[in-house]
Amino acid sequence: MNFAKNLARGVILVGAFVGTAAHAQLRFEISGVGSTQIPVAVAAFADESIAPAQVSEVIKADLERSGVFKVIDAGGAISEKGPIDYGKFKAAGARALVAGSVSKMADGRYDVRYKLFDTVNSGELSSMNQATLERYTRLSAHKIADDVYEKLTGVRGAFATRIAYVNENRAGRMYRLEVADADGMGVQVAVSSNEPIISPSWSPDGTKVAYVSFEAKKAVVWVQDLMTGSRKIVVNQKGSNSAPAWSPDGSKLAVALSKDGHTQVYTLNSDGSGLRRVSNSAGIDTEPQWSADGQWIYFTSDRSGGPQIYKMPAGGGNATRVTFNGSYNITPRLSSDGKTLAWVSQRNGDFALYAMDLASGQELRLADSATEPSFSPNGKYLMYATGAGGRKSLAVVSVDGRVKQRLTTNAGTIREPNWGPFMK
């Protein structure tokens, strides 16, 4: 990975996100579990066979994939309205029980109901009723899994979120910006091109993605509306336009531009107006990322001789170096709670994913052969690109390094993941 090539890397066929589905789904392979797992029994939902998605199976898969839960077979269907044999599940080692039902409403929607029971104290922990369209039954299941995750861990679940990434078929010279559910299902094509697409970045409200395309034979920053398929150029200055990143409130973008001769960090309004240079060095400043509170911009700079991570006030000003271990540190990413910095470091000839507790400065090596990290919106996982021989896939690792997942596809090489925000 050459630092200068990270500054930027087009698009001729654009389809509305809502209408274009990809044939190949991503597949998850799970390895590793958390240091302690919470035992949860998940029962089949009463009458769930009438729905296009088996709600209980989606919930089980979500909870198992997180590495946080040990899923126990409940031994049959249990409605949320039925009597609960708390002693049975407590004896089986389950701390909680998930039960529910699915019914079809007169207007064609599905009524998905669920309750979470505390088997230790013999009581109800949570409940949820959802009236959902047929195509959103999997989403209903993800929302239930999110509720289970939050009630039993105290942390908001991220199963009902989406990811964006680039799917590249070099042999056919085709590049696609794809969006999928966080479990790799429901893949849809947002943009298709025979020119490279790089650096997708979700807007905080989850309705848009900024990205870089090369359709003009140079790097230009676009913003795509995922619901309508409409898109517009937001930055097309002289030279390279690259590395878009949204501010936490969605009102601004930070970008890396070479308009003044060498690449520096700029900010602008999300509609493309108000361009302003905020970094000032004799070297290369690139890969900007906003802090969770919007007060700082972290970025990569070679001002000290080799690429390192720095931070500066979002409005510009003196920059402070953040990384000191290793001579090649790039691609900063910040967790949503502002506590953790993740980045890629080249050490001993390999690119590895590191995370740092910003309060203590303590570093943890999370994954080898890793590039292009992106935090889950709850800050508990990192998705990244990995692979050898030029063929990349995506992987996920928990911030403590214990849980690892891999997403694969038989359709091209997938890279440049960006984990979307919580949906409202």
UniProtKB/TrEMBL annotation:
Keywords: Cell cycle, Cell division, Periplasm, Signal. One of its GO terms (cellular component) is periplasmic space. Pfam families: PD40, TolB_N. It is found in: Periplasm. Transmembrane segments: none annotated. Residues 27-124 form the TolB N-terminal domain. GO terms for biological process: cell division; protein import. Coiled coil: none annotated. InterPro entries: 6-blade_b-propeller_TolB-like, Tol-Pal_TolB, TolB_N, WD40. The Tol-Pal system is composed of five core proteins: the inner membrane proteins TolA, TolQ and TolR, the periplasmic protein TolB and the outer membrane protein Pal. They form a network linking the inner and outer membranes and the peptidoglycan layer. PANTHER family: PROTEIN TOLB, PROTEIN TOLB HOMOLOG. Part of the Tol-Pal system, which plays a role in outer membrane invagination during cell division and is important for maintaining outer membrane integrity. Belongs to the TolB family. HAMAP family: TolB. This is Tol-Pal system protein TolB.
